[in-house]
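Hey, I was hoping to borrow your eyes for a little while. I'm sending you its amino acid sequence along with the backbone structure tokens. Take your time with it, there's no hurry, and the full record follows here.
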Amino acid sequence: MLAVEDTDPLGWERTMLSFEMENTAEEGQLDLGIYLRFDGTLDVQRVRMGVRAQAPDGAWVQDSVVANVAHHGGNGFFEISIPYRNGVVFSQTGTYRFTIGTASPVRGVRAVGIIER
């Protein structure tokens, strides 16, 4: 499972990125992570994000997540995955919705996503 959205590399601001995952059968426990792809223009050491997860019945949970990123100056792209929630069970069939937003503007982030770790 992987759901990734591109951001504006010149400045990911308060734009909320949305992801939908369809659950058709109980899959057991999953470990979820937050995926970040960034370039050498990243202008922070910590990317602070708000993550909201909503179940098909409308129940939701909201978390704050901080990605500590080492400074990667220069050319190229870099990718990290940070733990989000371990032992998640999608017990309902239907569409699960995730939204991720940044707490403050960040330059250099190219993509953000939800992944299975």
The CA atoms of residues 22 and 78 lie 29 Å apart.
